[in-house]
Design goal:
With 153 residues, this protein is an alpha+beta fold. The chain has a single domain, classed as PAS domain (Beta-Lactamase, 2-Layer Sandwich), CATH 3.30.450.20. The protein is 23% helix and 27% strand. The protein is built from 3 helices and 5 strands; from the N terminus they run αββααβββ. The chain has a 5-stranded antiparallel β-sheet, sandwiched between helices. β1 and β2 form a beta hairpin.
Length: 153
């Protein structure tokens, strides 16, 4: 039996699928939706798992504008106001920067999954969906990421 995909992405978590379908609706005929089209009240259960990042137009650096409370709790810190490349994600740092960088450069959704231990040594499996936003519909200027965590230990 073939794995179900949403617009070609093999998203496993139902809430991430819901968010991606919502993003496709917001996008319409554009390559990427504008941030202003995103209404957080349509996905209230996902708010604790969301990360909103600004893309610096000259350098491409990613600034964490908003970090959901569940993400902050699991990672053990609130990274709001910090650049993504200043944050230590342990052995996953290169992959995190690669995934977010790909979405920012190419303006396409990126789906990732990884297992990790947080600062309290609790094991998690995480599925992450990164979505681009663009005011002009062509050049990404913000990213929205949603993380789904499953505790393994």
């Amino acid at each position: 039996m073939a794995e179900e995909t949403v617009d070609g992405l093999p998203i496993q978590n139902g809430q991430l699928k819901q968010l991606y379908r919502y993003c496709l609706e917001m996008r319409g005929a554009r390559q990427m939706p504008p941030r202003s089209a995103f209404d957080p009240t349509t996905v209230p259960r996902l708010l604790p798992n969301l990360i909103l990042l600004d893309i610096h137009p000259d350098t491409g650096r990613l600034l964490v504008r908003l970090l959901g409370t569940r993400v902050a709790t699991i990672y053990g810190a609130d990274y709001t106001g910090r650049h993504l490349d200043e944050i230590d994600f342990g052995s996953g740092t290169d992959r995190v920067l690669e995934d977010y960088g790909t979405c920012a450069r190419e303006g396409r959704p990126v789906l990732g999954q990884r297992d990790f231990h947080n600062v309290r040594n609790v094991a998690y499996r995480m599925e992450r969906l990164i979505l681009p936003f663009s005011n002009d519909g062509q050049v990404p200027d913000k990213l929205l990421s949603c993380l789904h965590f499953i505790e393994l230990s």
